[in-house]
Amino acid sequence: MLELDSYETYYILQVLALDKRFLDPRRSLNPTQQEKEEGIIPLTDSLPIIPQSYVTHSLQVEALRGIVSIPAKLESTTLVFTYGVDLFYTRLAPSRTYDSLTDEFSYALLLITIVALVAALFVTWIWSEKKELRDKWR
């Protein structure tokens, strides 16, 4: 939880999601090969601010007082709530939601595929039994 100093100072802020590797104290100007393999980013005089990494998108949170971030039960997901004069809530998935199905996912096609595979398994099992019986008669 991040708590800002007081309501006396008037903040209009956007919330930025920053990769934790930028806060690694082991960063140096010239990382060794081993540090590069560990994913340590070289030290720079400023942090890169990528417009797509703003959690609040194009919205601003007026008089930002604090930020609360908690993990969700869904893998790779964090819930972020900011408060002040404005309230803002969002769900973040830094690793993308690779393990979640989209709204456009075709459950009917999945069901048809499973039924077709079960039917193919049954048919090949019957053919195998018939072939085995024919081989035994020879």
From TrEMBL:
The chain crosses the membrane at residues 105-128. Residues 14-137 form the ER membrane protein complex subunit 1 C-terminal domain. It is a single-pass type I membrane protein. One of its GO terms (biological process) is protein folding in endoplasmic reticulum. It is found in: Endoplasmic reticulum membrane. It comes from the Eukaryota. GO terms for cellular component: EMC complex. InterPro entries: EMC1, EMC1_C. Pfam families: EMC1_C. PANTHER family: ER MEMBRANE PROTEIN COMPLEX SUBUNIT 1. Belongs to the EMC1 family. This is ER membrane protein complex subunit 1. The lineage of its organism: Eukaryota, Viridiplantae, Streptophyta, Embryophyta, Tracheophyta.
